[in-house]
Amino acid sequence: MTGLFTKKLDVAYDDTLIVKDLNLSIPIGKITALVGSNGSGKSTILKSMARIIKPKGGQVFLDGKSIHQQTTKEVAKQLAILPQNPTAPDGLTVSELVSYGRFPHQKGFGSLSKEDREVIQWAIEVTGMTDFNDRPVDQLSGGQRQRAWIAMALAQKTDILFLDEPTTFLDMAHQLEVLKLLQKLNAEEGRTIIMVVHDLNHASRYAQHMVAIQKGQVVSEGAPEQVMTQEVLRRVFSIEADIYPDPRTGVPLCLPYELAGAIPDVNPKKSISEELRIEQHLTSAKA
């Protein structure tokens, strides 16, 4: 079996087992969103699959080989990871940051080759950062900084890209800026993207594959239509929500309205007021 998958994966922090006996396969060439409540283990799973955390048991396989039995450089040529809230040294420019992505391809302590420089320039251009090439990273806006870090990951020229909550602490405009960039990279470059996402509607809109995690286990996985259901949201997030097609894209849209258990666990016929509320939301979304 090729691709990226786990087999009976166990991950622990000290003596606390966070992930147990996990079997998870990531579809190649798609955007996969890992979703779940705080402390569910989704970031731990992502870091384990990206070789940041060593598992207590089981294996992560990349193209048929155990990822933890490969050298750091071997892995870095196949996948890149953007951790949550990365920081750069003061004064480091965008081009200097992006150049770090070429490290896995360099021999010894040699200088950048012609190919390295071409890849760096490509990564800067494809992320729309050309105008900020010589700007210090610490002087950029939140969205611009995220794009600079994504450019560095792209400079590794890997087929797989991991991102741990890439839109955290960004305002709505910058969140969309980053997510649209990832969508473009997937569509035009064919990159396999695995990201931890808090916003369920962002996950549904920008990912073709979703994995709902609870207590380190997969509760549901598949297309957004399979995962974004009332039952799954009740079990994973302990919320009651209305689910209906987005009027623009057709993907499932979630409107949480109550904590699970606060109302009877039944599904009666919608009241006139509820129908009116959904109709009003659809009308405003189309405007």
Total helical segments:
10
Going across the biggest sheet, name each strand in turn.
Answer: 7-8-9-4-10-11
What share of the residues lie within helices?
Answer: 25-40%
> Major sheet, described briefly?
6 strands, mixed
**Average pLDDT over all residues:** 89
- Secondary-structure element pattern, one letter each: EEEEHEEHEHHHEHEHEEHHEEH
Tell me the structural class: alpha/beta
Could you say which overall geometry the principal axes of the C-alpha atoms support?
A: globular
Distance between termini? 48 Å
**Poorly predicted residue ranges:** 265-275
**Rg over C-alpha atoms, rounded to the nearest angstrom:** 21 Å
Number of strands: 13
The portion of residues forming beta strands comes to: 25-35%
GO cellular component, one term: plasma membrane
Main location: membrane
Organism: Paenibacillus foliorum
Protein name: ATP-binding cassette domain-containing protein
Task: Give a quick summary of the entry.
This protein is α/β, with parallel strands linked by helices and 287 residues long. It is built from 10 helices and 13 strands. It has a 6-stranded mixed sheet, sandwiched between helices.
